[in-house]
Amino acid sequence: MKKINIGLLGLGQIGTGLYEILAAKKGLFACQLGVSFELKRIAEKYPERNKKVRPPKKIMTKDAFSVVRDPSIDVVVELIGGTTVARQLIKEALKNGKHVVTANKALLAEHGDEIFALAHRMKRWLCFEASVGGGIPCIKALREGLAANRIDSVHAIINGTTNYILTQMTAKGMSFAEALAGAQKQGYAEANPFLDVSGHDAAHKLAILARFAFGGKVKFKDIYCEGITEISSDDIAFAKEFGYTIKLLAIAKKSGSGMEARVQPTLLPNSHILASVNGSFNAILMRGDEVGDVLFYGRGAGPHPTASAVIADLVDIAKAGAEGPAEDRFMVRALGKTIPVKSIFSIQSRYYLRFNVIDRPSVLAGISKILGKHGISISDVMQRERSVGRVVPLILLTHATHEKDLRAAVREIDGLSCIKGKTQVIRIEEA
Amino acid sequence: MKKINIGLLGLGQIGTGLYEILAAKKGLFACQLGVSFELKRIAEKYPERNKKVRPPKKIMTKDAFSVVRDPSIDVVVELIGGTTVARQLIKEALKNGKHVVTANKALLAEHGDEIFALAHRMKRWLCFEASVGGGIPCIKALREGLAANRIDSVHAIINGTTNYILTQMTAKGMSFAEALAGAQKQGYAEANPFLDVSGHDAAHKLAILARFAFGGKVKFKDIYCEGITEISSDDIAFAKEFGYTIKLLAIAKKSGSGMEARVQPTLLPNSHILASVNGSFNAILMRGDEVGDVLFYGRGAGPHPTASAVIADLVDIAKAGAEGPAEDRFMVRALGKTIPVKSIFSIQSRYYLRFNVIDRPSVLAGISKILGKHGISISDVMQRERSVGRVVPLILLTHATHEKDLRAAVREIDGLSCIKGKTQVIRIEEA
């Protein structure tokens, strides 16, 4: 029986989930996996806030650094989050020869170079399945299941809050504000929803996925990021009429010697498998050169799903043996050359454009003339409401074109006297 | 650099895919995985039939037994298929101390007890990712990614041929025969499609999934199996009107100390994620007690996707070390007590019933009276075509009821003078 002594940092929601599972399934893990997980130390600054579990007092401490330095600890599980103390703690843990399991996407996205390199130098396991897609074993798939493949692209719904909000807007015709309020009430969105609705959380996860999918360093700040705050229920309804669903996608595509990497609201054909991923579910679609499209779907958050991923990492560490990796090629690849991210201006895409126009005869002619001048051709037009002299929405879908040209054209069109208010621009992905 | 000497049995489609990838990516695997795969011997009875690859003559043989006995071979990859010679070859390989990788679902479903036990006794790896879901790493997920979970149920679309046929029938209103002919033309169905359309292929894969999901032996012959040959485009259209899609599902659910296990055409709500799995794609949905629903989606067949799974197994074997498992708990569990399969008569389900009735006033009353007598309550009724005195379809959906009662009721109803032809019965799954 392999015995793993665990030091847990953070007894918040996920920490509590982990505590519960390790307590409830101790016998099961021993019998079915041949592993005995011993929760030796728990660091938590505010233990009195936890109403769900009461670990023995003697294993609790408020001093997280004492845990990462404790010689009896084999693996440190970091569930504090954030990029300040957590960063110091993980570094200190690695330097003290501990393996580390973490769910901290912000830290790995913003300081991955430092953390992964240190783990590699110290020959320790640094496992992070829980950092992307909660309980979905997508990192393991990249690391092992798809080992025969070069990954060409990743399209992912990796923020449950925004997917829940968009699903509610789509199903019930709600506004963003209404759907956000509902999500907060249901516990799917935090009181301060910025990280989620701005797309930043998804961008953090995308930085990790792209790094390990393509093999190389990724500069987090180069990932272009648009959130869902400007999406209206009208956009969702118009998209539907064209056969599209709007989702917040994290997209990374190999492109020449670099890649495209962005988080954006996206029109997806209804028949696309990602268009059927609803509610707070996440899904990661990867395209491998041998396997084609593979998709991994499940709960991207929540204490028990996330703890499920943490435990999968712990099991892997236990099986690999306490001595650590002689050479972790997966990590070595991810520490390779920086993969340059193409500027958003140089990408190509199809676009959904919603102009707010004064309804008069020459409007469409004027707009299409400017689009044509910039080399942009229109694939679909829709103007439903007719109300001469009033402001009405005019929807155009374009064929594939350069973002740079699109932006220049929209800027010019927005200067026309018939255009009122901001023009909505949403990218379209076909496959 | 770890060097793995491979003996390949069968240079058919998948074998050729494997050969191509190993040749094309030799350098990549060496650099990115630190593994050198040497294709040392290839056994193929009819090498002249292969028009795609021409391996060096000196590594080719028609005598597969010479390969499994070759002392220089570390891992035997069995891609011959079938349950006769392949069975002997795998046993001989294991007895000769080889690890084995196989895509042979029929063999593992029908002779798993023998093969897995022998692998366990010989302390050899027996890997079979490619046997279920082609390139989708679902066995790895069961084995490792979901290790923290008890699996409660599996719902899977694991036969690409039938999913392609049903998708065509749904999208184009084709009959089964037309869609089958189209699938044969496209290469999605074999000349003799029995194994696929009867549900047997899916049942083979379900036997493997259930064994490793729940941990225990599974008697293949106890898995109830209905194919799609009796599904009409009318059924698909009627189901659609109620908001359902018809899919061939492989279902296994824990039930008391045993399980339900069956392959059946199924009405799934359109909002169900499996209802969006179209064309020849496969998807395996598993419900874990910690993680909730997780789904794995991708190409369930094809030379390169399947070879992708074979290589993932080879990489795992290479990483685990040539000495083999000291103790493979995943295998031990699967060699545990037989999990009894509940008789189909004792399950409960909701049902779609299509009666062919002579259109006269008292018909619905007569049918509902008999259903009521058997304790079956109706949730929905549809009778669109009215044509007094002629035979028209009458569709009923039931609430959950016992199969035994349902069958007794249908038998009784089929005896009514107003019923013409065979009544269609299709089970409904809600979540």
Total number of distinct structural domains of chain A: 3
CATH homolog superfamily of the largest domain in chain A: NAD(P)-binding Rossmann-like Domain
The chain-level structural class of chain A is: alpha/beta
Helix count, DSSP H or I runs of 4 or more residues of chain A: 15
Task: Characterize the largest beta sheet of chain A: strand count, sense, and whether it forms a barrel.
Answer: 11 strands, mixed
Overall, the morphology of chain A is elongated
The CATH architecture name of the largest domain in chain A reads 3-Layer(aba) Sandwich
Q: pLDDT average of chain A, as an integer? A: 96
Indicate the proportion of strand residues of chain A: 25-35%
Helical content of chain A stands at: 25-40%
End-to-end separation of chain A in angstroms reads 47 Å
CATH class of the largest domain in chain A: Alpha Beta
Oligomeric composition of the shown chains:
homodimer
Hey, which two chains have the biggest interface?
A: A-B, 53 and 54 residues
CATH topology of the largest domain in chain A: Rossmann fold
Tell me the Rg of chain A in angstroms.
24 Å
Per DSSP E runs of 2 or more residues, the count of β-strands of chain A stands at: 17
Low-confidence stretches of chain A: none
